[in-house]
Amino acid sequence: MIRVPETLPARMFLLAYDTNKQKMTKGGARLGYVLRAAALTELYLDGRLGEGRRGPVPGTPGADPYGVLAQIAASPRPRSWQHWVRKDSRAIVRTVRDELADDGWIRVQRRTLLGVFTRHEITVRDPRVVKTLWGGASSALRGRPVAHVNSYDAAAVALAAAGELKTVLPGPDRRRYRRRIAELTARTGPAAPAVRRALEQDRSDGAG
């Protein structure tokens, strides 16, 4: 049996890797939104984060691997799920990338361009890990009743759909399985819809 990372953000990072092209398909803010939402969703599913009237609220005390719960607890006023999806979205990409590299899941090569800009080239050490994660997401999308789907697999579909990760859900699949995606999203909490709203807002701001 192929071992996979335990945290949902680490899993979503690997699911954004294209095993055919051997490179990441998403970067910057969009991947950051997905990873922040994954951290929020993990806390939500484990009961460490609840849903308040204006946004997430601390729930049962417990582990907070990415410091998201601490940020929410320290906020002087309630803020929306979309706010927390956006906050430090680029930083979490670096955090999860370095975590995966340190734990031996990926190899990161730093290349300097024009003597100034540094690009990180990422290679997954064992592509079977990505394929295993993809298989779980695919099964959640096409298989057993929603109530019996593994929570993290359901979340992977919801987050991939919201963040438009084509490695997991190409556009035609997002349209074909719209109802199923909605059911999986409803089961995994408010963070995934917040990613979709954040991207819509970005597009609106860009258009303006």
Description:
The strands form 3 sheets. The protein has a two-stranded antiparallel ribbon. The chain has one domain: yeast vps74-n-term truncation variant domain like (yeast vps74-n-term truncation variant fold), CATH 1.10.3630. α1 packs across α7, α2 packs antiparallel against α10 and α7 crosses α9. The mean pLDDT is 92. It is built from 10 helices and 6 strands. A hairpin with a 4-residue loop joins β1 and β2. Helix content is 56%, strand content 12%. The chain starts with 7 loop residues before the first helix and ends with a helix. The chain has 208 residues and is of the alpha+beta class.
Helix content: 55-70%
Largest sheet: 2 strands, antiparallel
> What fold name goes in the CATH topology slot?
yeast vps74-n-term truncation variant fold
Compute the number of structural domains. 1
Mean pLDDT: 92
Strand content: 5-15%
| Rg for CA atoms | 17 Å
| CATH homologous superfamily identity | yeast vps74-n-term truncation variant domain like
Membrane topology: Peripheral membrane protein
GO molecular function: phosphatidylinositol-4-phosphate binding
Subcellular location: Golgi apparatus membrane
InterPro entries: GPP34-like (IPR008628), GPP34-like_sf (IPR038261)
What features would you highlight for this structure?
208 residues; alpha+beta; yeast vps74-n-term truncation variant fold; two-stranded antiparallel sheet; 10 helices; 56% helix; phosphatidylinositol-4-phosphate binding; GPP34-like_sf; GPP34 family phosphoprotein; lipid-binding
